[in-house]
Amino acid sequence: MKNGYLRTTDAASIYYEIEGEGQPLVLVHGWSCSSKFWQKNVPILKKHFTVVTLDLRNHGKSSKGLHGCLISRIAQDIHELILYLDFKNVILMGWSMGGPTMLSYWQQFQKDGLLAGLGLIDMTPFPLSDGDWNSHGFRNYNTEAFNSMISAMNKDQEGFVNGFVKKIFKDSKQPAGTQWVNEECMKAPTASALAFYSDYIYSDFTTVLKTITIPVIVFSADSNIFPHSIKQGQYIASQIPHAKFIPFEHGGHMLFYIEYEKFNNAVLDFAQHLK
After folding, report:
1. Per-residue pLDDT tens for 193-236?
2. What are the chain's domains?
3. Nearest Cα to 136, choosing from 208, 57, 231?
């Protein structure tokens, strides 16, 4: 494994890891998470790809601070990392908040022609949308729920994180041996985490979906993060010209971790059809 830090153009330090050889596959984690979340995927996928995982700014081992807490900026960070590593023909996949980050990346950098395919993993392109397809808890412009979230997280970050992590898993039942999830989520400072979440919920990328001209794979699973995520994923895939949708029945929001064999095989199959 190779690892290091990228110094971005606005002076953030982004931690990344590289394993394997082959077509570049960049995996982007979700809100308050880290590169460690891909631990059941990298060991298999590195046999077929050059797998890159990273800690978004203000997450994991990356630098902390209040500047750049924007979806558009972390998409730029990813672009700078891809350029730094001199990658082409990249498969870029993002989970949860990483999903809108993929859409922002496409919106900003599609003309560079560096991407071969995109992956959208259990995500919504606009959390506040009043569309029937949207399964986020803040749907229908429920900003009061966000205000309550701000209050709860500021009052007791650990208590908030513990409740949030339970929702990640199907039926809110956290499996034994996953306390590391809570520990990783605690590494994101409250102030910057809330700044990211604010930009996330107010950013509308629904119109970007129809503009994507490369193949996309969409993964979804119902959980207490997105109670009707399979319906949501079906809608998202229907809006993209060249999209494949794969539902997961048991994985919850962390479908790639719980149902890792199914996820890994789907990624391999997706890549094969890009050639």
Report:
1. 999 999 999 999 999 999 999 999 999 999 999 999 999 999 99
2. 2-272 (3.40.50.1820)
3. 231
